Structure formats: C-alpha cells, structure tokens
Amino acid sequence: MIPVRHLTILGSTGSIGVNTLDVVARHPDRFRVVALTADKSAKKILEQCRRFQPRYAVLLDEASAEWLKTEVRAAGLATEVLSGVESLEKVASLADVDTVMAAIVGAAGIRPTFAAARAGKQVLLANKETMVMAGRIFMDVVKENGATLLPIDSEHNAIFQSLPQHFKGDLGAVGVRRILLTASGGPFRQLPLSSLEHVTPGQACAHPNWVMGQKISVDSATMMNKGLEVIEAHWLFEAAPEQIQVVIHPQSIIHSMVEYVDGSVLAQLGNPDMRTPIAHALGFPERIETGVTPLDMFKVARLDFEAPDFKRFPCLRLAYQALATGGSAPAILNAANEVAVESFLKCQMPFTAIPAMIEEVMQAVGRKDIATLNDVLAADGLAREAAHEWLTCLA
Ligand SMILES: NC(=O)c1ccc[n+]([C@@H]2O[C@H](COP(=O)([O-])OP(=O)(O)OC[C@H]3O[C@@H](n4cnc5c(N)ncnc54)[C@H](OP(=O)(O)O)[C@@H]3O)[C@@H](O)[C@H]2O)c1
After folding, report:
1. Ligand 1 centroid vs 112 CA: distance in angstroms?
2. Burial of 260 (0-12, 13-18, 19+ CB in 10 A)
3. What's the CA-to-centroid distance between 192 and ligand 1, angstroms?
4. Whose CA is closest to 94, among 10, 166, 29?
5. Shortest-distance Cα residue to atom 6 of ligand 1
6. Ligand 1 mean position to 246 CA, how many Å?
7. pLDDT confidence of 125, banded at 50, 70, 90?
8. Is the pLDDT assigned to residue 207 strictly greater than 90?
9. Considering only CA atoms, which of 171, 166, 183 is closest in space to residue 236?
10. Is 9 helix (H, G, I), strand (E, B) or coil?
11. Which listed site, 226, 232, 313, 332, has its alpha carbon 20 to 30 Å from 130?
C-alpha cells in the first residue's frame, strides 16, 4: 500500500501553492491536505477548502479570516479558520502533518518555515528567503530536530537530482568540483542598457519562460533571484561561493548542473514547469505523474550558454558581495530588495533604482554577527527602516 502523506501548504494561493495542489489533486491516494494558508486571498482559499477539505485554513489577515469563517460555515465545511503568524506556525508543526510545503513569498515565510523544521517535518523549501536570511541557523535547526529538506527551486532541485543519493553535505567527498547554476537572464537580457530605466512592472513580470508570482518575476528580471539562489545553494549544498558558477541559459531547459572532478557534468532537463520539482519532492524518492508536457528535444533543437554580465545585473554582484560579507549582510540584502521590488511594482521608483537602493541600504545598515533568529529579524527590521528612509529621500 502507498503511504499517505499529510500536508500543510504554506502559501497555497500563490504560484507554487496552486501548482502543488495541482499535483496533489492528481494523486488522491497519496496525499491528504491538512492545512492551507495565505495572506489575504480569502476567495481563492475558500475554493481550495471546498475542493481539498482541509482541517485548517489560515489567513494572516484577521479581517479576511473573519470573512472566510462566515463563508466556510455557510458552505457547511468542517474547516477551522484561524489567523495570524502564530497560527501559521501552529499548522506548520501539527503532530499529524509529516510534510510542509514552505511557499510563502519573502521574509514573511521565515517563522512558519522555522516552525516546520523545529517540529522535524519534511520541509519542501520554496521560500528561499529563509535560507538567504538565516542559512546557517536554519540548517542547524533542521539537523538538530531531524527534519529533512527537499529543494523546490527548480535549480536546487536539479542540483539535488544531479548529486549522488548518498551526498551528506561534503561536495569534495562525492567528487564534485562545481555547481553550475543556470539562469534564463529574464526579460531584459538583451535590452539596451539605456532602456532599463524605463521598463514597466508589466514588462518586468513577463518572464520569457516561467509563470511565477510578481516578486520572483521582478527578481528574475534584475537577476537578484539568481543572487538569492547562489546564497541558497551555498547553505543547502555546503558549496563555497567560488564553487557556484552562474550560467545564463536562455531556454530554461537545463535547470542546473553538477560538475565532477573526472570531467563529467550531470544535468537535469525538462520543460520549465514548476510541477516537476514540486512532484519530485512530494513523491521523493518515487517519481509521480505531473501532467507536465514531455520534453521534445527536436523542438528545443539548441541550447545556448553565456556568462552573466554584472554591469547589466548589479543585483547579482550585490548578492555575491553579501554572501562574502556574511553575518547579517544577506538578511539586509533581502529586506532592502523586498522593499525595492514592492516600490517598483507600485511605480514609486524606476527599475534601475532597485540595485542602487539595495547597495546604499547595505552600506548604511552595516554587517552584524548573527546567532539567533531574533538577530536575523532585527537586521531585517533595520534594513526595512533604512530602505523606507531612502524612499522618502527619493520622493
Ligand atoms: N513561482 C515560482 O515559480 C517559484 C519558483 C521557485 C521558487 N519560488 C519561491 O517560492 C516562494 C513563493 O513564490 P510564489 O511565486 O508562489 O509567490 P506568490 O505567487 O506571490 O504567492 C505567495 C503566497 O504567500 C502568501 N503570502 C504573501 N505574503 C504573506 C504573508 N505576509 N504572510 C503569509 N502568507 C503570505 C500569499 O497569499 P495571498 O494570495 O493572500 O497574497 C500566497 O499564498 C517564494 O519564496 C519564491 O521565491 C517560486
């Protein structure tokens, strides 16, 4: 008999959350949804409650949760509706949940993701910001509590698939020389540099290969997303920064590669569809159906590669810099980036101001040592204050 997995899906109304539920719905014999969560998307989560009948639905926003409570009752559902961060932590650590999809966007995901790791769950990690802000502390919590981590980011999932199954965190011991982290280069890879100042949020969110949430789409356009992924790869695979090479690969067919000392390069390929890494992690170690269109090599025909251009993508340089600086620097980078992206999406500042703001905030706040999650959250708070001050000066 197939063992049934009991799931909490943090961020169920987002791009990763919806793709997760799509895979789950294809395997009713394998998965039970115990809890779904979102911030304010009450109508969307109500539909998900009707379909998946979870025991809990959590909305961060209290007013949205009140509306949902009424609707859930009217629909005759047994789902208990909760609100607030503590409730997100509660459903991430329920005794009868074994697997938690961590797919809240941004720093907001850090507390529930930590709660899942502290409770020893199998954590399917989409929320890369947890790793960027608090990589060392998070990895320690995972180890101390017997939690397991499976990467959802397509690149990290590809690297995980290209490493030997007995890999335990020592790349040298399994003969790995380098990780080749692929990046599409986003929508502005070939745009004249002088035009970058005038790009709109709509253009930045129109990724050539992937359909994703707004924040990660802008991060892909600045290549901050790749920078965050370099930091994530550093902690997940214990790779030194110089062992992580970003490779621009515009077709997004190779999702990343691992280079071995004998000259072999192992890669994972597929059509760009997040249901593949999600299903890989949900079914691990088995392979399960996803509905993803099989890769047609004759249609793909060619695969291109180029080196990243730090002049075009200063955010990538800033991320490498934050990783080298260590301590609170990656948390500051992440917080400044979140404020900058939100402001750009609201048309409060131009696209090219995103790296400028991040660099100034990193300088203004300065690095501190990090020992606890509270230290991380304090650095995040200081960086947000500095970023908002920067915005006030811009206005
Ligand atoms: N999308 C992708 O293809 C992709 C690929 C790789 C990695 N990732 C990573 O996966 C994570 C999710 O990305 P996404 O694209 O799925 O984001 P998204 O579409 O924006 O969805 C974000 C989810 O988080 C919830 N949320 C937002 N703010 C919250 C808060 N303050 N507290 C609690 N919940 C909150 C949202 O609820 P509402 O609907 O109520 O706003 C939604 O359910 C990110 O860390 C991203 O970097 C995404």
Report:
1. 13
2. middle
3. 31
4. 10
5. 153
6. 24
7. very high
8. no
9. 171
10. strand
11. 313
- What would the two tokens of residue 127 be? 């929320």
- Tens digit of pLDDT for each residue in 130-153? 999 999 999 999 999 999 999 999
Q: Is 250 in the pocket of ligand 1 (CB under 6 A)?
A: no
Residue 232 Cα to ligand 1 middle (Å): 17
The C-alpha angle with vertex 248 and arms to 151 and 295, in degrees rounded to 5, equals 65
Structure tokens that stand for 107 in this block:
């720093």
Which helix (H) or strand (E) element contains residue 265? strand 265-269
Backbone dihedral angles phi then psi of residue 264, each to the nearest 5 degrees: -70, 145
Taking the C-alpha atoms of residue 38 and residue 362, their distance in angstroms, rounded to an integer, is 30
Which structural domains are found in the chain, ordered by start? 5-151 (3.40.50.720), 326-395 (1.10.1740.10)
Q: For residue 38, which phi and psi values (nearest 5 degrees)?
A: -155, -175
Which tens digit of pLDDT belongs to each residue from 161-189?
A: 999 999 999 999 999 999 999 999 999 99
Q: Say yes or no: CB of residue 137 within 6 Å of ligand 1.
A: no
Q: Which two tokens stand for residue 113?
A: 């993701």
* CB 89 near ligand 1, within 6 Å: no
Instruction: Report helix, strand or coil for 245.
Output: strand
H or E stretch covering 26: none
- Secondary structure element (H or E) that encloses residue 258, with its range: strand 254-260
> Mean per-residue pLDDT for 258-267?
98
| CA-closest residue to ligand 1 atom 17 | 213
Q: What is the DSSP letter of 53?
A: -
Q: How far is the CA of 15 from the centre of ligand 1 (A)?
A: 7
Mean pLDDT of the chain: 97
Distance, first Cα to last Cα, the chain:
62
The tokens for 370 are 């990090």
Q: Is 111 in the pocket of ligand 1 (CB under 6 A)?
A: no
Q: Supply 228's token pair.
A: 């965050």
Distance CA 62, CA 60 (A): 6
CB 35 within 8 A of CB 57: yes
Contact 77, 53 (CB under 8 A): yes
pTM metric for this prediction: 0.97
